[in-house]
Specification:
Layout (H helix, E strand, L loop, with lengths): L12 E3 L4 E6 L10 H9 L3 E4 L9 H4 L4 H16 L4 E7 L1 H12 L5 E5 L6 H10 L6 E3 L17 E3 H15 L9 E6 L8 H9 L5 E6 L12 H15 L1
Parallel strand pairs: 2-3, 2-4, 4-5, 5-8, 8-9
Antiparallel strand pairs: 1-3, 6-7
Helix pairs in contact: 1-8, 3-4, 4-6, 5-6
Length: 249
Amino acid sequence: MAEFHIMKDAEEFYYPGNNTGVLVIHGFTGSTQSMRFLGEQLAEAGFTIYGPRLTGHGTAPEDMEKSTYQEWIQTVEDGLEKLKATCSAVFVTGLSMGGTLTLYLAENHPEIKGIVPINAAIEMPELIETYEQLRFTDTKFVDGIGSDIKKEGVEELAYPKTPVKSMGELINLSKLVRSNLAKINVPALIFSSTVDHVVPPENSQEIYESIIFENRSIIKLENSFHVATLDNDKELIAEKSIEFIKSIM
C-alpha cells in the first residue's frame, strides 16, 4: 500500500489555552494551512485550539480518493472529544466543507456552545452536475477547486486535482447536514462571501434561516472570495469570532 506523506503546513495544530476550546476545521481538498491564521488568532485570545487534518487531506489526491465522509465526521468527532478532555466549553468553526462538518457537529452535539460556519456548503448545484456527468465514467480526477482567493499573491495549500469519488462523498455529507439543519439549537455566527466561486452564497442564507436559535447572525464578506480565512477579510473573521465566543462565555 502506498505511503502518503503529510505536506508541509498541512499538519494538524494544537494550541493549549484556557478552558474554552475551539475546534477549527478546514475544507474539501484543502488543508489546515487555510485555518492556521484563524487558529493562531483564537489562541492569542486565550482559547484552547485544535485544528485536525481531515482523513485523506494534506497528502495526495490519491489518498483522499480512498476516504469517506464518515471518516471526515470521525476526525471532527475525535477532535471534539480531544477538546472536551480539558475544556468545559467548546465552540466549532469551519471553512467550506469544514463549515458543513461544523453544522453536523451542532446537529448531533447539543452541548456545543456555539458555531462559526464560514462559506459552509449544504448544496452545490455545479458540483452535483459535474459529479453526475462523471460518476460512471473512467475519469478519476478533475481540476482542483482550491485557492478561490481575491487577494493577490495568496495561495491555498490544496490539491491541484479533485477525486470524482470524493465529490460524491461531499454531496452525501451536504445532503445529510442540510436535512437536519432545524436541529441546530446553538448560537451561530455565519460568515458569507458575497462573491464565492465555489459555494453559492445562498447556502449561508439558508443556514441562517434554518437554525432555530435566536442568537444567530450573518456577516457578509465583501472583500473575499471562497477561502475567506486566507483572504482580505481574515482579520475581520478572527476579530468577530473572538467577540462572538467572548459574548457567550
